[in-house]
């Protein structure tokens, strides 16, 4: 299953400049997702990180993986932020970042559900640029129901 940015915005509450998933290439409901983020020099964080040598902050690579995992979790259950559901990032284990991400890169985001118990999800995540591994980690997210006004 593929999704464009308009489809993605149905399942994520983030918006510019913090929406970090541009397209979903593959998704197996309840199992895994492959998505990407096109990294451009126009990203607002490059103004300060770093002006003479722009590098995508590692925490934003982690956030991009969390957002891809959020799309997988939401879409697998057909829950949406507009219906009052949110996923909160609650932890990351075994984070290893191996290669910088720079303007012009297409960051591939992969997440696979490891476990899902009582609204707590654990995902095995991997980020890459082409054939080069950028990083790996295990992330945890908690699903919460919010009041919808």
UniProtKB/TrEMBL annotation:
**SUPFAM superfamilies reported in the protein's UniProt record:** Thioesterase/thiol ester dehydrase-isomerase (SSF54637)
Which GO cellular component terms are attached?
Answer: cytoplasm; membrane
Keywords recorded for this protein, A-Z: Cytoplasm, Lipid A biosynthesis, Lipid biosynthesis, Lipid metabolism, Lyase
Report which superkingdom the organism of origin falls in.
Bacteria
EC number(s)?
A: 4.2.1.59
* Listed GO MF terms: (3R)-hydroxyacyl-[acyl-carrier-protein] dehydratase activity
Tell me the InterPro entries matching this sequence: FabA_FabZ, FabZ, HotDog_dom_sf
Q: Tell me the compartments it is located in.
A: Cytoplasm
Q: Which Pfam families match?
A: FabA (PF07977)
Q: According to its UniProt record, which reaction does this protein catalyse?
A: a (3R)-hydroxyacyl-[ACP] = a (2E)-enoyl-[ACP] + H2O
Show the active-site residues. Answer: 49
* A GO BP annotation: lipid A biosynthetic process
Q: According to its UniProt entry, what is the function of this protein?
A: Involved in unsaturated fatty acids biosynthesis. Catalyzes the dehydration of short chain beta-hydroxyacyl-ACPs and long chain saturated and unsaturated beta-hydroxyacyl-ACPs.
Recorded family membership: Belongs to the thioester dehydratase family. FabZ subfamily.
Q: What is this protein called?
A: 3-hydroxyacyl-[acyl-carrier-protein] dehydratase FabZ
Species of origin reads SAR86 cluster bacterium
